[in-house]
Amino acid sequence: MTGTAPGLRQRITQIMRDDQGRLLSALIRTLGSFDLAEDALQDAMERALVHWARSGLPDQPDAWLLQVARRSAIDKIRRKKRFRDKTGDIIRLIEEDQEDRSADPPEIPDERLRLIFTCCHPALDEKSRVALTLRVIGGLTTQEIARAFLDADTTMGQRLSRAKSKIQAAAIPFKIPERADWDERLNSVLSVIYLIFNEGWTAGPGDAPIRTGLCVEALWLARLLTKLAPDDPEIEGLLAMMLLAHARHKARFDPSGAFVPLDKQDRTTWDQGMIIEGLSILDRAVARRLPGPFQIQAAIGALHTQAETPEHTDWPQILLLYNRLAALMPSPVVYLNRAVALAETGNLSQARRALGDLAGPLAAYQPYHAAVAELARRDNDLTTARTAYDKAISQSKSDSEKRWLSDMRAKI
Fold first, then answer.
1. Which of 179, 202, 225 is the last residue of a domain?
2. Whether residue 94 is found in the same domain as residue 174
3. How many domains does the chain have?
4. Which residue among 16, 23, 224, 353 is least crowded, i.e. fewest CB within 10 A of its CB?
């Protein structure tokens, strides 16, 4: 026995955290079913608690779990009423199991990249892609994902179930797409990982701070992608962008929980190790001379983190980068950030006109109204500033942001 039951359970939890995506992807590839693979792996975990408490951890715990999960799947298929329809599957599984019994524990094939592309298939809606990726690759429970999205557990469970059913019903292939389709599908994968990061980066409702766990999950997934698909500059750009942002997470709220904007943050609290890593990865990506949106966003983040003080921020260069980003990825949010950069370069009137053009598409976007308020305040247009602050406050979900916006409004 390797330790007490609680210690053993912790060890199994860590093994699953490290290897669940690899184990599930191998099982799904063999079984062709998300639900059967998850159920079989859960059975293997429960059996591990019993067997490992008695006999100690095997030399290759992950291989042990895979073998036991496969045998559990065989038992489950045997018990199905329509057994004859599954005869071919069960024969194949038995043959694989017998081969493994007579050989050394198998090396688990790494099918995670296939699984990520499957979870992020364009046939699924955006929220389902994020949730399913967190579930099967990140190893988060349904309850943890529901909390991240502020959904009820049952609602999130139903969403995950529908997503898995749609993959099976639509016969979405469990494969990495052909090179001709790679860029479109990879962009979907990268967007999902970024959305996971952004979900954690955005302050939660009430007094909830940023959900660091989700940011860490997104960083873990991006690191995984750099290993599974090395030398891709946009994957490196995404990882660099998130590292440079997350390096500032401790400075975004003061000890009382109050929100602190970028230009007021204590830069000595920024994680310099994370910044150095992000800059190094960005340099490597840029050297490949295949620029893309995530690399440009990472470059913008680099200029912010490299400035010793807010006054030293290279806003003209940031504006040029936003011009390039708008050409590659035109969107109202990009235009909003470009307008802010334009104001920081001294073109306040032009920036305010640019914001005016975005009033329709960003009417329900809280950062838009905060930007309108700030630029109106700088231009001494106090009536517009107060109205915009009121809209920003009403649309904010975070109490700390509401307090900060209210304080700004009270000063004019």
1. 202
2. no
3. 3
4. 353
